[in-house]
Design goal:
This protein has 159 residues and is of the alpha+beta class. The protein has four helices and five strands, in the order E-H-H-H-E-E-H-E-E. It starts with 25 loop residues before the first strand and ends with a strand. The mean pLDDT is 89.
Length: 159
């Protein structure tokens, strides 16, 4: 770990929500990804539009967007944020037999949006799993990770 200390602990060591009141409002951006691997037949079912549950990619996209907006309700100590942009892109990948998910979150505010982007990507993947589990219980969600973040006191970071 770097010399930077964890900030969700108070002076007694108890968990707390960080006070960001004195931080400057800056543009904050984060990109996160996830990948859900599945049987080739499952991917083809999704792409053909033949799934009984309809357009599962569209549903997963909306679920990811909604999840980003509710991150503060899901992850303890996250601040409620007024996101100005959330996008979730789902790209089928026949070569790897799965779907790549890219989530981007933006705002102008006092704290970053990394958790929101990670939550969006994760929930989109979980939604695909939920909608397709009846035909493919062996799906695997992998590579959920932050790709980059910009803004704030710590500046930019890219994987």
């Amino acid at each position: 770990m770097s010399e930077q200390q964890l900030t969700h602990l108070d002076e007694t060591g108890a968990a707390r929500m960080v006070d960001v009141g004195a931080k400057a409002h800056t543009e904050r951006v984060a990109l996160a990804e996830s990948f859900i691997r599945m049987e080739a037949a499952t991917l083809e079912l999704i792409l053909s539009g033949g799934h009984k549950k309809g357009d599962v990619l569209a549903v997963a996209r909306v679920a990811g967007i909604m999840a980003a907006k509710k991150t503060w309700d899901l992850i303890p100590m996250c601040h409620p944020l007024l996101l100005t942009k959330v996008s979730v892109t789902l790209t089928p990948d026949r070569e790897r037999s799965g779907v790549h998910i890219l989530a981007e979150c933006r705002l102008t505010g006092q704290t970053g949006v990394e958790m929101e982007a990670l939550t969006a990507a994760s929930v989109a993947a979980l939604t695909l799993y939920d909608m397709c589990k009846a035909v493919d219980r062996g799906m695997e969600i992998a590579q959920t990770r932050l790709l980059e973040k910009h803004g704030g006191k710590t500046g930019s970071w890219m994987r």
